[in-house]
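Justification of resources, computational component.

The compute hours requested in this renewal are based largely on the per-chain cost of generating structure records like the one below. Each record pairs the submitted sequence with a full structure-token output. That output is archived, and it is also reused by downstream analysis tasks.
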Amino acid sequence: MYDFKNIESIQIEITERCNAACPACQRNIFGYGSSPGIYKSDMSLEQFKILLSKEFLTQIKDITFCGNLGDAQLNPYLPDMIEYLHNIKPEIQVVVNTNGSLHSTEYWAGFAKYKNMQIVWGIDGTTSEVHSFYRRNTDYNKVIENLFIIFKLCQKANLIFIISAKFFQSK
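The structure output for this chain reads:
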């Protein structure tokens, strides 16, 4: 039996929106159109604060903005949500999974002040051609530009890849 007081880790989906159209993603039909039941909505900052109250956050060690159906970077409240978490509990570990293809380098640089934060970049391919095969509607060069600003400021970056024969065809 689970006890609410024993929860220490959370994975949360703060949006169902995503700019990518990855062919293997359950949010669309082989990269085209939306699957039924995808509402393309965002969690508000107020909803986030209700769900993750100050009292509840005292027991939380880590939170992951997971991106099962959406990419957290599309929720306009993401920076405010992370600020809220760190104001309540500065030592909380925060992970944001993203395709990293939106926003300016200044936006991404704003996250560098959080020492307990990791951004996990979904990069599939070592060239624009291969990457765009898997991460449709994203710009490989923009992803790399955003990734490098985080690496420059934080001295670390986390990458995830789909490994396939096409991936190794990158030159």
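Residues 148 and 155 are 9 Å apart (CA to CA). Strands lie at 9-12, 28-29, 32-34, 62-65, 93-98, 117-122, 158-160.
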